[in-house]
Amino acid sequence: MTLRARHRRSPLLVYLAALLVTLGVLSALAEDSRENNQPGGDIAVQQLSFARNDQQALNIARQMYGRDFPYVKAIRVWLETPNDDPEQLFLKIGKSRNCKTECFNVALFHNEKWLEIYRRPAVEELGLSAVTPTGMRSIVEDGRVWTWSGQAYTPQPDQTGMVEREANEAELALVSKELGANIDETTATSFGPPEVSVYEVEILLGGEKIIVVRSPYYCGQSFCPVFLINNLGQSYRMIQALEGVVGLSRTLRDENGFRGIETLSRGGVTVISPSTGAVMETIPTQPVAIAGTVK
């Protein structure tokens, strides 16, 4: 079947019509992302493979990318709920044969024209989640989840191996001291009791913790306080994350050997140095572009 422009109300067309994402949407997205990144949440249910090309999809992809990328592989995928008009592709493209240099995975969505909605360095472990409440599947690349925000694919902090638990009394007392307020007293306010979560992690030597406080009282409408705790039980830095969604970098370490702390922000993911508090890296939201154009 030939792919062609259609006048149907796809999730992408509806979402791209919005000019702004409100704070409420961001908050809801962050909360959804936090839940989905937990074990058993928004994980890949379909693994993608380029072992076999779809010839028609390959012909379409080569028309757009063949001039700049000699290596092109293409398969059809469903990024939305399956319907009668499959018009989404996933590509693997590269500057040399067998994709040895400048290799990328690319997702395309056709709606009146071909749109490139995702382009990232190629990885072996690539998959799609089930369809999310936004109407689009999440993309899972080598453990990192990219969630459709309503306007673009947004990266989520890598929470591989991180398990969330409730804080105990000693940890609540530590956080109360750091905040300069008794957490129990906020229970009597209209906001109710805050949610204090703990992740036991390895940041430098092992035995460290990340403690997150989630409550409108402390977070307002967006960023929540996040405390980094060393293996002696001492708090040594406070950072902030949208709705308290945090993760750990698998490979990036700062100059003192600390693993980077990944935090959800409005522009994507910001990786923070635990020892200095400086920004080490940003992983931005994917821009939507006309397919085949240079990004």
Structural summary, described in words:
- The strands form 4 sheets. The chain has a 5-stranded antiparallel sheet with strand order 1-6-7-8-9, with no helix packed on it. The chain has a 5-stranded antiparallel sheet with strand order 2-3-4-5-19, covered by helices on one side. A 5-stranded antiparallel sheet has the order 10-11-12-13-14.
- It is α+β, with helices and mostly antiparallel strands.
- The protein is elongated.
- The chain has helices at residues 11-16, 23-36, 55-65, 169-179, 183-186, 216-219; strands spanning 46-47, 71-76, 88-94, 104-111, 113-121, 126-131, 137-141, 144-148, 153-155, 164-166, 195-201, 208-214, 223-229, 235-242, 246-253, 259-265, 268-272, 279-284, 289-290.
Write the layout of secondary structure elements.
Blueprint: H1 11-16, H2 23-36, E1 46-47, H3 55-65, E2 71-76, E3 88-94, E4 104-111, E5 113-121, E6 126-131, E7 137-141, E8 144-148, E9 153-155, E10 164-166, H4 169-179, H5 183-186, E11 195-201, E12 208-214, H6 216-219, E13 223-229, E14 235-242, E15 246-253, E16 259-265, E17 268-272, E18 279-284, E19 289-290
Antiparallel strand pairs: 1-6, 2-3, 3-4, 4-5, 5-19, 6-7, 7-8, 8-9, 10-11, 11-12, 12-13, 13-14, 15-16, 16-17, 17-18
